[in-house]
């Protein structure tokens, strides 16, 4: 099964994607996570993309598409895309890639979120530097402040979760990524979930849709 999760920055794509990928045995392909790993490892790709992530602007399409193409090649038994595509050009490149391999997108899930709530959610989010577990200082605090419940690692704020950068990312989303909603609504199986609800409720609704996609296969 091949799935795409769409939504603005801070809509909860990362949290929900991890749960869904695990539940359905899909490869979780999160372009932001992949870039951050490259930056942490100081690879050539990491150095190329670092300034874009820092400033909250998009990495050029050609670089992203090439990286995703490589990943999809490794994940023939199904995937969930999180953070890609983010522009119409990326969506078209993906369609072309899949067509040439006789593959399809089974469902696009759109996590719709009130953008006013996003800013508060993002400036309070933290993640474990060791295992990547996600926290929020208000809605999901760790038992011990600054420490990961799962592995004891140090909790950090993402460089691009500062208020001014979050605002920039939301503007980029409005301009370049929002048009994808209309694109996928017309071309693919498309379902929308209200991301302002409690996390478990969001997961439940997503699962119900993915179960439908599974039956439809
Ligand atoms: P969020 O969805 O919370 O904004 P991500 O972790 O998905 O965060 O992305 C972080 C950053 O990585 C983006 O602001 C952008 O610079 C870069 N990035 C991730 N995916 C893409 C993509 N598909 N196209 C261009 N840039 C991307
Ligand atoms: Zn951890």
Could you describe the 3D structure shown?
The protein is an alpha/beta fold. It has one domain (2-113, 163-216): P-loop containing nucleotide triphosphate hydrolases (Rossmann fold). It has helices at residues 13-24, 31-40, 44-55, 61-74, 88-100, 115-123, 163-177, 179-187, 199-216; strands at 2-7, 27-30, 79-82, 107-112, 125-128, 134-136, 155-156, 190-194. Strands 2-3-1-4-8 form a five-stranded parallel beta sheet, with helices on both faces. Strands 6-5-7 form a three-stranded antiparallel beta sheet. It is globular, with a radius of gyration of 17 Å. The model has no long low-confidence stretch (mean pLDDT 94).
Offer a quick outline of the entry.
This protein is an alpha/beta fold and 217 residues long. It has helices at residues 13-24, 31-40, 44-55, 61-74, 88-100, 115-123, 163-177, 179-187, 199-216; strands spanning 2-7, 27-30, 79-82, 107-112, 125-128, 134-136, 155-156, 190-194.
Write the layout of secondary structure elements.
Blueprint lengths: L1 E6 L5 H12 L2 E4 H10 L3 H12 L5 H14 L4 E4 L5 H13 L6 E6 L2 H9 L1 E4 L5 E3 L18 E2 L6 H15 L1 H9 L2 E5 L4 H18 L1
The structure holds adenosine-5'-diphosphate and zinc ion (ZN).
């Amino acid at each position: 099964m091949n799935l795409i999760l769409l939504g603005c920055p801070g809509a909860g794509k990362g949290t929900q994607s991890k749960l869904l990928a695990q539940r359905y045995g899909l490869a979780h392909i999160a372009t932001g996570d992949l870039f951050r790993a490259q930056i942490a490892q100081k690879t050539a790709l990491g150095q190329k993309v670092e300034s874009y992530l820092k400033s909250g602007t998009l990495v050029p399409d050609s670089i992203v598409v090439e990286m995703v193409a490589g990943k999809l090649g490794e994940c023939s038994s199904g995937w969930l895309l999180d953070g890609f595509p983010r522009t119409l050009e990326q969506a078209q490149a993906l369609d072309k890639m899949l067509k040439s391999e006789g593959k399809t997108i089974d469902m696009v899930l759109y996590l719709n979120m009130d953008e006013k709530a996003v800013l508060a959610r993002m400036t309070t989010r933290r993640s474990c530097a060791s295992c990547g577990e996600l926290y929020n200082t208000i809605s999901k605090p760790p038992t011990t402040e600054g420490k990961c419940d799962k592995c004891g690692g140090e909790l950090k704020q993402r460089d691009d979760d500062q208020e001014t950068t979050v605002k920039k990312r939301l503007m980029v989303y409005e301009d370049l990524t929002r048009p994808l909603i209309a694109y996928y609504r017309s071309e693919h199986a498309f379902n929308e979930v209200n991301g302002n609800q409690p996390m478990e409720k969001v997961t439940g609704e997503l699962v119900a849709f993915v179960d439908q996609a599974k039956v439809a296969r």
